[in-house]
């Protein structure tokens, strides 16, 4: 699971823009398997957090309404080139992953 | 002797409350320093008001011009609708994103930490043509903006 996250963090002026892509099925629990006709159980990321320098700059709670292979981006002040931004997620089945990337 | 009896009662009680206790301890005792616990009630709510009540503490919000929602007018594929929310308000604590026509309208909540700017984007699923609502909590008050998005193919399973 270690490579489920892609991060781009760019510094422009004093604002850092973080863009993040996570690979995840994000099943709603409402979809049916086309072969067996059974419901596919819900499987989605519900918590995401972004850290910079030990502070949580952004944390998010997600529901099933977030698209498959979620993308999200945000901006924050106080970042510097070379600093690490760490993003971690956790899903409703208890899986989790995290990745750190340097600000460019 | 009394202590013994009490102990019995306690033991019995704890067996009965066993399942409940497990659930509670799973939530309370796991070290969760980074993020607040996922708000199940809010994400399972079936109306916008219920979801806002559970997620933000109140359902009423003042419409605000300073919240900008950037999203397509027509989404060809409801499974992937890019939505950006930004505002020039000061002291924003959190931003919630809702799709009014979805079975469970609340899509995501973002809470802003130190240094974060009130500016988030993500991609959401929409079951049918409806309004997307952005609710911004700033200074303890809720402000909202909405934008109608026409969905040609729904993206919430089925």
Keywords:
heterodimer; A: 104 residues; mainly beta; Immunoglobulin-like; 0% helix; B: 158 residues; alpha+beta; 4 helices; 9 strands; 40% strand
Helix segment count of chain B?
4
- Report on the biggest sheet of chain A: 4 strands, antiparallel
Question: What's the order of the H and E elements of chain A?
Answer: EEEEEEE
Order of helices and strands of chain B: HHHHEEEEEEEEE
The N- to C-terminal Cα distance of chain B equals 62 Å
Biggest interface: A-B, 38 and 40 residues
Record field, number of beta strands of chain B:
9
Give the number of domains of chain A: 1
Q: In percent, how helical is the residue content of chain B?
A: 25-40%
Please report the first level of CATH classification, the CATH class of chain A: Mainly Beta
Q: What is the CATH superfamily classification of the largest domain in chain B?
A: SoxY domain
Strand content of chain A: over 45%
The tally of strands of chain A reads 7
CATH superfamily annotation of chain A:
Immunoglobulins
- The outline of chain B comes out as globular
Alpha carbon gyration radius of chain B: 21 Å
Helix fraction of chain A?
Answer: under 10%
Topology:
The complex is a heterodimer of chains A (104) and B (158).
Chain A: E1 5-12, E2 15-22, E3 45-52, E4 55-62, E5 71-77, E6 84-91, E7 96-102
Antiparallel strand pairs in A: 1-2, 2-5, 3-4, 3-6, 6-7
Chain B: H1 2-16, H2 18-28, H3 40-44, H4 48-56, E1 62-63, E2 67-70, E3 74-77, E4 81-87, E5 92-99, E6 106-112, E7 116-124, E8 130-138, E9 141-153
Parallel strand pairs in B: 1-9, 3-9
Antiparallel strand pairs in B: 2-4, 4-7, 5-6, 5-8, 8-9
């Amino acid at each position: 699971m270690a490579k489920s996250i892609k991060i781009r963090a760019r510094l422009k002026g004093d604002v850092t823009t973080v863009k993040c892509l996570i690979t995840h099925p994000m099943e709603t629990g409402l979809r049916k398997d086309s072969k067996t006709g059974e419901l596919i159980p819900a499987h989605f990321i519900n918590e995401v957090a972004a850290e910079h320098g030990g502070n949580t700059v952004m944390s998010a709670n997600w529901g099933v309404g977030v698209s498959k292979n979620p993308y999200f981006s945000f901006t924050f002040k106080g970042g510097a080139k070379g600093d690490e931004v760490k993003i971690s997620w956790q899903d409703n089945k208890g899986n989790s992953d995290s990745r750190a990337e340097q600000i460019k | 002797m009394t202590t013994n009896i009490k102990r019995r009662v306690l033991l019995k009680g704890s067996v009965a409350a066993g399942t409940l206790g497990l659930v509670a301890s799973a939530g309370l005792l796991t070290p969760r320093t980074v993020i607040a616990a996922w708000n199940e009630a809010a994400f399972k709510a079936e109306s916008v008001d219920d979801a806002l009540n559970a997620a933000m503490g109140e359902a009423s919000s003042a419409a605000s011009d300073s919240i900008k929602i950037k999203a397509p007018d027509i989404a060809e594929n409801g499974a992937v609708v890019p939505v950006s929310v930004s505002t020039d308000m000061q002291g924003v604590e959190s931003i919630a994103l809702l799709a009014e026509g979805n079975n469970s309208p609340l899509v995501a909540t973002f809470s802003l930490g130190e240094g974060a700017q009130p500016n988030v984007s993500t991609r959401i699923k929409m079951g049918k043509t409806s309004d997307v609502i952005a609710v911004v909590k700033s200074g303890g008050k809720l402000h909202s903006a909405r934008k109608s998005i026409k969905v040609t193919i729904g993206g919430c399973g089925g």
